[in-house]
Write a structure and sequence with these properties.
Elements lengths: L1 H35 L3 E10 L5 E12 L3 E3 L1 H10 L3 H21 L6 E5 L2 H4 L4 H11 L7 E6 L1 H4 L2 H13 L3 E7 L8 H4 L4 E4 L1 H4 L8 H14 L3 E4 L5 H9 L4 E2 L10 H17 L4
Helix pairs in contact: 3-5, 5-7
This protein binds ligand C2E and magnesium ion (MG) (3 copies).
Protein name: cyclic-guanylate-specific phosphodiesterase
Organism: Pseudoalteromonas phenolica
Length: 287
């Protein structure tokens, strides 16, 4: 009896394995053709300087428009790309596209300090990130100071030394390093002093619960204070409400990102937003 149950569950397991590998296989080929057919595009979300209200940078957020499935969220396809070993290829595409756009915008007189790019932990550990970045900068004749690379804490867990040497190479190019989703990983705070990090991005799960939920305001206050004490720039992600902005302003947090200021936008919408922003800032009374 128990043998039978065992065999049945094995068969079930086998069937789901097959379905799963089929799914992987079809995803793999869809992914590869998506890269070839230009089904990926970048959207851009501006980051606002809290003090002067100007736009300091934009973050590139990858979008996949599948002809059959429609828009697929990066939260879905990034983990898949990592699993399939395709993330480096995808990241390289993003880095090149971002540099191309930044160079083009600068040429058009758009004043942005930086363009921020999300890079997967896996990519960092293949030891080619700095090389890819250097090549993209060179190809588009862009100074490294125009780029910010966003990494999550998970990037440093498996091999701190390796991560450090890659980050140093990026720093040598003039590129800034941001720690994304800060506060959600399992990392030790000592990373902040061991690695050449320039920017902390406070995860939306903290900022979105400010000021109501007990403890969150305190955590955000502490992160901002710590970042400043360590001479890091600090960005609050996921700011959706005016009260949250007021709270962050009162903490003298440097930058803000979120739906309150602007959602991630397609290139043409982003450029329109930028022009509008410049115009309304010019019209605003001096203070
Ligand atoms: P992330 O880098 O932390 O990006 C912030 C995410 O929060 C984005 O989701 C953005 O659309 C969303 N967001 C921004 N403001 C608000 C807000 O006020 N409220 C709420 N609820 N959400 C807000 P998205 O675009 O779905 O990206 C999810 C994650 O996928 C990113 O998190 C990043 O880790 C990853 N990702 C995106 N693009 C790339 C990429 O080009 N390469 C890699 N490796 N990862 C990427
Ligand atoms: Mg990010
Ligand atoms: Mg984040
Ligand atoms: Mg994230």
């Amino acid at each position: 009896r128990s043998k039978e149950v065992g065999r049945n569950s094995f068969q079930l397991y086998k069937a789901s394995m097959n379905a799963r590998s089929l799914e992987r296989l079809s995803m793999l080929s869809r992914f590869q053709s998506a890269l070839e057919c230009n089904e990926f595009e970048l959207h851009y979300q501006p980051v606002q300087c809290l003090n002067e209200e100007h736009i300091s940078s934009v973050e590139c957020l990858l979008r996949w428009q599948d002809p059959n499935l429609g828009m697929i969220s990066p939260a879905q396809f990034i983990p898949l790309a990592e699993e399939l070993g395709l993330i480096t290829k995808l990241d390289q595409w993003v880095i090149n596209r971002a540099c191309e756009k930044m160079a083009f915008w600068r040429h058009q007189g758009i004043q942005l300090q930086r363009i921020a790019i999300n890079v997967s932990a896996q990519h960092l550990h293949q030891g080619e990130l700095a090389l890819t970045v250097a090549n993209a900068l060179e190809r588009h004749q862009l100074p490294g100071s125009c780029l910010e690379i966003e990494l999550t804490e998970s990037s440093f867990i498996s091999n701190l030394h390796e991560a450090k040497s890659e980050l140093k190479k990026l720093k040598a190019l003039g590129v800034s390093i941001a720690l994304d989703d800060f506060g959600t990983g399992y990392s030790a705070l000592s990373y902040l002093t061991k690695l050449p990090i320039d920017v902390l991005k406070i995860d939306a799960s903290f900022t979105s619960k400010v000021p109501d939920e007990y403890g969150n305001s305190e955590i955000v206050t502490a992160i901002v204070a710590m970042a400043k004490a360590l001479k890091l720039k600090v960005v609050a992600e996921g700011v959706e409400k005016q009260v949250q902005k007021e709270f962050l302003k009162q903490l003298d947090c440097h930058y803000l990102q979120g739906y309150l200021f602007c959602r991630p936008l397609s290139e043409s919408h982003w450029l329109r937003f930028y022009q509008e922003h410049i115009r309304s800032n010019l019209e605003a009374p001096m203070h």
